[in-house]
Amino acid sequence: MKSMLLVALTLLVVTQPPSKTARDWNAEAVKAYQAKDYKTFLAAERRALELEPSNPRYAYNVACGESLTGNTKEAVRLLIQLTDRKIDLGAQKDEDFTAARQTPEWREYTARLQTLRQPIIRSVKAFEIPDSEIMAVGLAVYHATGDTYIASIRRRKILRRDRAGAFSDFIQPAQDGFLGGAALAIDAPRDLIYASTSAVPFMRDYRKEDSGKSGVYGFNLKTGKTERKAMLAPDGKQHFLNALAIDHKGNVYVSDSLNSGIYRLPRGKDELETFIKPTVFEASQGLAFSDDEHTLYVADFVDGMWALDMVSKNRHHLELPLGSWLFGLDGVARVPDGFVCVQLQVQPNRVLHLKLDNKREKIASVDVLEMNHPSYNEPIQGTLDGDSFLYVANSQIGLGNGETGAYEAEKARPTVVLRLPLTKTH
Hints:
The chain is an alpha+beta fold. It has 2 domains: about 20-115, Serine Threonine Protein Phosphatase 5, Tetratricopeptide repeat, CATH 1.25.40; about 125-425, TolB, C-terminal domain (Neuraminidase, 6 Propeller), CATH 2.120.10. It is built from 6 helices and 24 strands. It has a 4-stranded antiparallel β-sheet with strand order 1-24-23-22, with no helix packed on it. It has a 4-stranded antiparallel β-sheet with strand order 2-3-4-5, with no helix packed on it. It has a 4-stranded antiparallel β-sheet with strand order 6-7-8-9, with no helix packed on it. Strand 11 and strand 12 form a beta hairpin. The model is unreliable at about 1-15 (pLDDT under 50).
């Protein structure tokens, strides 16, 4: 009888369905919301928040549910908690909070928002690019000459700004099939600058047959000539090769922000290899090596920072201080004690310093270096330049429609590049 009982218990454990994750509950909540079943929506989002209590999106969704089901006081309380974490997810314009906006508590919330939206400014303007349609994305500084390189996603080229401040085309538009320019990285020992490039409908001279194309180019720093070109093999999927990292041997690694993989371009070869399959990360973005290059740090746009072992390819999520949230990281600049990166999607937009602990196993602190700068219009990745972080304040990518290819040229403004001192992060 005892053995039969053990077998029965074992079968019970084996056949039990796996527990729902926070994402499972959130997916269930979304379906209920779409069906306007707000009680079920709220119950499911509460379960998601119980499993991931530090996730602001779940807290925001619970606030939506509370407002929609009449508990407006609790809805506003949750929103105020988010402002205490320096997070604004758009409740002021969200119709889910129509009832909550009529309450006395809402006045306190709007007052908190006004405080949150006060700019934190520590940078100075490094330079301005007169061409309003450049749609600058990637930056790189060649320290041997002081030249700054700027990748243009719309103009399909790379600009060079010399030490004296003069601009010139480093490569010509669409040179050797170059598509929309994304990230840049310099391989100084080999006199090369690498650029990731992808087809986007709002780039100049886009053709339907360009759809899905993406690759990595290597240009000679002295001549601007194309020395390396490696394109992803067509697979019927959309790709956007983005952030770059180069090891000391000259091997190039690049993330795919649309298909979530990481690819490697080995030195001496012209074919991209799959280094990490697309199923591993949610949305791979910024890349940065540890000092010994045994670890590749990966910023996932959805769930923060990961440490990837270069040999085993095992990864672990970098634990965060309570209350921190790293959704929407774009680009990762390595500094001695951690990273500097731009955080998008979260309002107000900001630049963060992520400090690693002594063992380099978790993030010890998350500090806002700059936030809600008046020049911001979709700030984007940057690069180190000595003791400064150089980054694009107004990429204006939102002016381009990724589906139709339409571009709102009348709204475009000259690109502003900011220089943010980093002495406090060293």
